[in-house]
Amino acid sequence: MGRLGGLGRGQLVAARLPFPDRAGRGPGLGRDRGRRPRRAALRGPPVIGPDRLAVLHVVRQFLPNRGGLEDFVANLAREQVRLGHDVRVLTLDRLFSEPGLRLAARERIDGIAVERLPFRGSSRYPLAPGFLGRLKGADIVHVHAIDFFFDALALTRPLHRLPLVATTHGGFFHTQAHAGLKRVWFHGPTRLSARAYGAVVGCSDSDARQFAAIVPRGVPVIENGVDLAKFAGAASPAPCRTLLTLGRFSHNKRLDRLIALMRALRAEEAGWQLRIVGVPSDLSVADLEARIAEAGLAGAVSVHAGLDAAGVRALIGGASLFVSASEYEGFGIALIEAMSAGLVPVVHPNASFTDLAARHPGIALCDFSDPDAAARAVRGAYAGLAARGHPPAEDLARYAWAGVAARYLDTYAAVRRAA
């Protein structure tokens, strides 16, 4: 959701954006380096054929920032590189969580060429008018999320004439803040922008239902891929009263309700612990620690920010249950990761989690707005685990990245044929 008083459509035209030269393959990569994330190994040999594509992913935040959106783009891009495609990521040059740190303008991560643009304005709708000169050489442009890039690439399509694909990633409905303005924007500018896209792909059934209202030709669903090996089998082998939540520290995650849950749990038994794992967003580590201290839970609830996969895996090894009070999810990557680890999930019934629970019976739904009811659900999940041991592993093969990447390549091919 952009700032409605920010850059309008007329202002985008007036920005005098440079016309791209489609003949080239983009600028070469410099030797400068930003802060490097942990390198993930590519699985399997490259498969290079005559249909090699130059794919440009456009996303507002990317590595080294960590979160569901960033991990999605990184994993999809890695799989496409493994398949022999020429993959670039165009993103912003500062992290919203660390706005004072300017990252390298160009970098290569796991075979992915990363190009970063300066921007101004809000993190909700960051303005990066230099994007158009970075499109040259692309066969397909894949835009992630609904923001400035989604609108600007649509508006300038008569100039760049490139086939466009977008993935919704929850749109901008993660919270109820400014709900009326969001609906106006969604049914106005977002509807108009969507017309320029050869495909608007929903990452969940709930996203597809929502976007079908503004995309009459239909919204195909390609569910998010998940790295099923990253935390596979990492949960504590012996039942323990330690809960873990994983995700961005944003308002929609309702971490305040998890703190309230812990007060209710510990009112009856002092052994319960909660690990809050993720990256700062709307809330900082200091914000969360202040709320934890105010609730009298400083020894029971801990915050872990910016960990790499090995660090998260180590924390999962001391936990038995996954909890989430999130009111809105584009898909629910963290929930699938938790199940792959063997954590027993107890989560709030938002639309995405409800859809996943219909498919995976091991997911327990409860209303986290009532801390006592949530505490009863958590105690029940723990009692079942203690009495019967870990339930049979869920079949999560549909979320493997190889299949997800193949479905996106099929989508690219269809959009290019129709362009």
TrEMBL record:
InterPro entries: Glyco_trans_1, Glyco_trans_4-like_N. Residues 67-229 form the Glycosyltransferase subfamily 4-like N-terminal domain. The keyword Transferase applies. Pfam families: Glyco_transf_4, Glycos_transf_1. This is Glycosyl transferase family 1. Keywords: Transferase. Residues 241-379 form the Glycosyl transferase family domain. It comes from the Bacteria. CDD domains: GT4_PimA-like. Residues 19-45 are annotated as: Disordered. PANTHER family: GLYCOSYLTRANSFERASE (PTHR12526), SPORE COAT PROTEIN SA (PTHR12526:SF638). Transmembrane segments: none annotated. One of its GO terms (molecular function) is glycosyltransferase activity. Gene3D superfamilies: Glycogen Phosphorylase B.
